[in-house]
Amino acid sequence: MSAHCIVFLAEDHENDVLPFTAAFRKVDMVNHLAIVPNGEDSIEYLKGTGVYSNCIYYPFPGLLITDLKMSKRTGFDFLG
Asked: Which DSSP helix (H) or strand (E) runs through 15?
């Protein structure tokens, strides 16, 4: 298995996720985009805990993009 850069998108609004998925689909890289719906899940993903404990399915990202006003925990909580 070769290493790929994973782009991590923490976003809770589908309308804001659509442009990212469309762009990644256009260049045939949609499998390089990890989308997490809220700040709490974002923290779990990066820690590799809970449902995100399998690093094969949830690899550590090379780039983080976050919404600052998410549900459960904000992007500020996630970055802090």
From this structure: helix 14-26
Tell me the domain boundaries of the chain.
1-16+61-80
Q: Model-level pTM?
A: 0.84
Q: How many other CB atoms are there within 10 angstroms of residue 27's CB atom?
A: 8
Model confidence pLDDT, tens digit, residues 29-45: 878 899 999 889 999 99
Exposure class string for 47-66: b at 16+ Cβ within 10 A, else e: eeeeebeeeeebbebeebeb
Nearby residues of 44 by Cβ (< 8 Å), 6 or more positions away: 50, 51, 52
Strand 7-10 with 33-36, pairing: parallel
Q: What is the largest CA-CA distance in the chain?
A: 36
CA gap 41, 72 in Å, rounded: 9
